TrEMBL record:
Chain residues forming the annotated DNA-binding region: 31-50
Pfam families: TetR_N (PF00440)
Key words of the record: DNA-binding, Transcription, Transcription regulation
InterPro entries the record matches: Homeodomain-like_sf (IPR009057), HTH-type_TetR-like_transc_reg (IPR050109), HTH_TetR (IPR001647), Tet_transcr_reg_TetR-rel_C_sf (IPR036271)
Domain HTH tetR-type, chain residue ranges per copy: 8-68
Lineage: superkingdom: Bacteria
Alphabetized GO MF terms: DNA binding
Name of the protein this chain belongs to: AcrR family transcriptional regulator
The species this protein was found in: Sporolactobacillus putidus
GO biological process terms held by the UniProt record: negative regulation of DNA-templated transcription
Coiled coil: none
Length: 218
């Protein structure tokens, strides 16, 4: 094993330990001491690779983003020939599937609270920059679909694609959260599953941005 491979293995072992603790104990309750013990390294070794617990959280989010992007690309290939609104619906379905298949990654990504320091100049952090780049890649997929829908005459041209994407993203996250934490309530009192709630909500979102007459043009 060359030195580079050994360094990569140690780095991944530390991320694995952090991920296990963040998902089992919670990010706030996990410490760098905990991570060092879980990884079977000294805290000094952990700090040689990562400068903070937050940087490790970015690394965990990076794993989640990569998984989500892989799913979006795989499912997107199946709907390449569909109009933009159909592809947007497929994208939403993939988000839902991701939240079901990888709930811990979903929570890590969508529960992260951005701090002011994340955007200050002069504080380089490769993990943070890569994490935000992956997030922007996904956001770019969403805005791209909205622009294509406008070109196809499906979505309203008076809407700003970026601002509309932010609203759709925010609404999706809100519905995701509600459908998860209130799943038993909605199922027992309204006979509505989390999947049905999300699908119905997203259909309302799509209709709100469609041209009059709605749907893809014939």
């Amino acid at each position: 094993m060359n030195p580079g491979e050994g360094k990569t293995m140690r780095r991944n072992k530390i991320i694995n330990a952090a991920e296990k603790l963040f998902f089992s104990k919670g990010y706030e309750r996990s410490t760098m001491d905990d991570i060092a013990r879980e990884a079977h390294f000294s805290k000094r070794t952990v700090y040689a690779y990562f400068n903070s617990k937050e940087q490790l959280h970015f690394e965990v989010m990076i794993r989640g983003y990569r998984q989500l992007i892989a799913m979006l690309k795989k499912e997107g290939k199946k709907t390449n020939d569909r109009p933009a609104d159909g592809r947007l619906e497929q994208m939403a379905d993939t988000f839902y599937q991701f939240s079901t298949d990888f709930p811990d990654y979903f929570a890590a990504i969508f529960s992260y609270e951005n701090g002011e320091s994340d955007f200050q100049k002069g504080i380089p952090d490769q993990s943070r920059e890569e994490c935000y780049k992956l997030g922007e890649d996904i956001f770019g997929m969403l805005t791209g679909l909205l622009r294509e829908g406008q070109e196809e005459g499906i979505f309203r041209n008076d809407l700003d694609p970026v601002k509309t994407a932010i609203v759709l993203w925010s609404c999706m996250v809100g519905v995701f959260h509600t459908s998860k934490v209130k799943a038993n309530y909605f199922q027992n009192y309204h006979h509505t599953s989390s999947k049905d709630l999300f699908s119905g909500a997203f259909q309302m979102m799509i209709r709100s941005i469609q041209n009059e007459g709605g749907g893809s043009p014939e």
